[in-house]
Amino acid sequence: MKTLIASALLLFAPLAAHAACAPTDFAVEGFKMKLVGSGMGARLSLAGQLVNHCAEPAAAQVAIDAKDGSGKVLQSKKGWPAGTTNIAPGQSVEFDLGRLFRFDPDMQSYTVGIADVRTW
After folding, report:
1. Mean pLDDT across the stretch 5-18?
2. Does any domain span residue 9?
3. Overall domain count for the chain
4. What is the average pLDDT across 82-96?
5. Mean of pLDDT over the chain
6. N vs C: which end of the chain shows fewer Cβ within 10 Å?
């Protein structure tokens, strides 16, 4: 029985570490959309800073929705700005996820949020 309990603790230990920080512990600051170039060479810049307000080092996945004038989502993308590196408490990383999107002139607004959090 003790072996079963010890096995269960080892199995769920990574989940406990995963739950230490939540999406609400991260913030996106200074998010800006900019069109770089023109014509067929135009590309989007969707840049900002991801800030860790958690008490522990962790990483967060940023989600961006590109919407048309009526609010309909045209494209959605997610990315890990720090890759597989944890961000220290109180620190930030800059990101630009525009390269993940295909430019569409119907895109009128963008929403950005935190989709997931984990420790590496």
Report:
1. 48
2. no
3. 1
4. 97
5. 88
6. N
**Domain housing 39:** 21-118
- Whichever domain contains 44, its CATH number is 2.60.40
Decide if 106 is inside a domain.
yes
14 domain-assigned: no
What pLDDT is attached to residue 1?
52
Q: 3-state DSSP call for residue 16?
A: helix
Residue 21: predicted pLDDT: 95
